[in-house]
Fold:
Amino acid sequence: MKNKIHFVVIRLLMIALMMRISFAQAQILPKPNAQQLAWQKAELGVLFHYDLHVFDPSKYAQSANRITPVADYNIFNPGSLDVEQWVRSAKDAGAKFAIITATHETGFALFQSNVNPYSLKALKWKDGKADIVKDFVEACRKYGLKPGIYLGIRWNSFLGVHDFIVDGTGEMQKKRQQYYNAMVEGMVKEICTNYGDLFEIWFDGGASGPEKGAPDVLPIVKKYQPNCLFYHNDQLAEARWGGSESGKVSYPCWSTFTYPSTGSGESTYKGISANNFELLKHGDVNGKYWMPAMADAPLRGYNGRHEWFWEPNDEQHIFPLDDLLDIYYKSVGRNSTLILGLTPDNRGLLPEADVKRLKEFGAEIKSRFENPIAVTSGSKKVLQLNLSKATTIKQFVIQEEIADGQRIRSFSIEYFSNGKWEKAFNGFSVGNKFIHLLEKPITATKVRLVINVAVGAFQITEFGIY
Amino acid sequence: MKNKIHFVVIRLLMIALMMRISFAQAQILPKPNAQQLAWQKAELGVLFHYDLHVFDPSKYAQSANRITPVADYNIFNPGSLDVEQWVRSAKDAGAKFAIITATHETGFALFQSNVNPYSLKALKWKDGKADIVKDFVEACRKYGLKPGIYLGIRWNSFLGVHDFIVDGTGEMQKKRQQYYNAMVEGMVKEICTNYGDLFEIWFDGGASGPEKGAPDVLPIVKKYQPNCLFYHNDQLAEARWGGSESGKVSYPCWSTFTYPSTGSGESTYKGISANNFELLKHGDVNGKYWMPAMADAPLRGYNGRHEWFWEPNDEQHIFPLDDLLDIYYKSVGRNSTLILGLTPDNRGLLPEADVKRLKEFGAEIKSRFENPIAVTSGSKKVLQLNLSKATTIKQFVIQEEIADGQRIRSFSIEYFSNGKWEKAFNGFSVGNKFIHLLEKPITATKVRLVINVAVGAFQITEFGIY
Structure:
């Protein structure tokens, strides 16, 4: 008895110690800000690429296009432009937000800019009065999607900007760099102030920063869109690229990262590009910075193509449904936000084949996840679902509350079948969402989630079987 | 008698021989084409400089401005723009044609371009719908002036063009140069096709040429404006810069030149810049190419300033009337075409002080030349004016017919006073117009013009006293 009491006391002391440690650790855990939380919970977004070369006869080739001005910008003439059709299609896919390339690498702006003359104002089309960004954000709001804006400022084939730096030499280069930086900052202000609240502002390739002679965009976004996800520059990335354009991240994928930004190259932060961007794909479990992963891929990325920009006769490169589902499981199902690249055609419409596939995809995801067999939640080490009868299970979903940081470090999913508990999966990261699709369905009468290691108190907001 | 006959025969033979030589020489004399003839007969034009930096707070400084983009092009906002007021003022000055800087060194286009987005289309002002070039040519036609257009393509601070060449390196530079050349050629086509018949197209600094990697503008002008004076590129100059921006040329000033163009530097044609552009100031009496001289000066070129562009508080730099008259005598009066630089202000009006001075100038020229004391014409070696009484004479005007070339090489003006002939002036070139203003008026009963040397048959269209 004395031994037993002794043992209990020691055990209680140990637990208290562990909890204190855990509590202390939890206190310094990085946490998402409001926009990061919203972005992660959104899970699925789309990014519409639209630029002058959609209208040219040649195949888009990024390395050539970014240094070659489009010969005649008046080729931009989408006779049947219907931005609402784009957005409806994104909604059909299940996207909760949608982003548009307000500028891409030509430098041509799809809005009424007062600082960048190379914009819709220059066109014969709609008498120079169109504002596709405005139409787009309005369409998003109409259909309940959050609007975001992408600004390509790293390249500008029209003005001669190469990796943020104005091409040239001597005093003219210096003066034009100053002008370019001010122009970009002006565009950022326009984007931040003319279109209401934005969900994400995406600076492609990172926005570099003033310390490298590049535009200083972060203070502008923070001033005028404090609740907007900032992606990204050398100083800050509120989300990170997931290390590939495959639409997938590696498992485990942590929402935390080693550095406050992913920078724009090895010179800024070490090791990011090592092993084919392994650090971006996984994140850093011990990272001090909250920086959830984005998995991006163009819908037209199948079978030897990888097309962010529309070209005729590319329909066979639209991902088949199965591939899209695989992407979904390996992005959303691995605690990252999936952003699918869509590209309207030269009529101004998302092509019928893309629309159809997105609808199929959205419907399939909905059908797979709208009716769980059973679901529970809680903060206990073991969460068990007792089923009334032997039930066939295809997939598991786990979600932890990430508002106070990502806390689960190791877990197991077990199921009771034929009189004994079996392991269905041993995992590490959960984060916003973990989905395990079984290779073969199982039949069980009970399932349980066992949290093996966690840092601080955790909260499972869903443990569900489907 | 025999001797006399012999002498007559020899003399006739000699005359015949001389005439043959003269005739032969006259045959190969360079002659003006129709646009050159019209341009020389016009005698006086104006050039309106108008660009973004009229609206900026800093003093215009060409070497800095041409490499520094204007920070905010929306400063261009001439609230009281009245192009007709400009043109009326030019007419008041006696100008027969007027030119406008459709683009200057910023690259900003004062017209509705479909190839250069950096244009009035980009502005908030007038909702991007203004076309100052169009308004200008219409105003010219309304008031009976011939419209011309100046295109600055040598520098473009916005696009980073330095002496026709796009700043930069490698493939991007090559591609942007191709783009720039095509853009310029596109603008030239727009200018040549959208505004009716033009009197002069002025490429500042010469337009270089495709053999140097620069835009190929000459064929476009020749195709679409065959009757327009082309000024100028490396291949052709239908007029030449008079070698200074003083508004004056040197005497004698021949309408012929050594080369078909003045090029854009020593590398193209030898000796042009030698001795402070002496060759341009005088021309080449034996030159094989017809290339009349242009004397240009900004109206605001007095007393330590030389301002093509408006700045506030520069009224004291408007040439006094006497200086303008001196310019007139040393340009128009020396067989060159005077082009005065005018610059409207940031209201869009030619300032009152400029307007007043131009009116004074026009009135004074008119008063000095509208009522000749006596005038004659003809093709005799000696043209004499017999006056009914002793008359005070202030100035002489001589004009030769230049349609078949400039033929007079040496002449004297003589007057009969106090019973004998006196020399008033010994001259060389006449050309379209020679004016001799006497230092002190003379009193005479007869005056005569003696042609000492001429190449081929000449025709004096006016010998007048004033």
The domain at 374-465 of chain A is CATH 2.60.120.260 (Jelly Rolls).
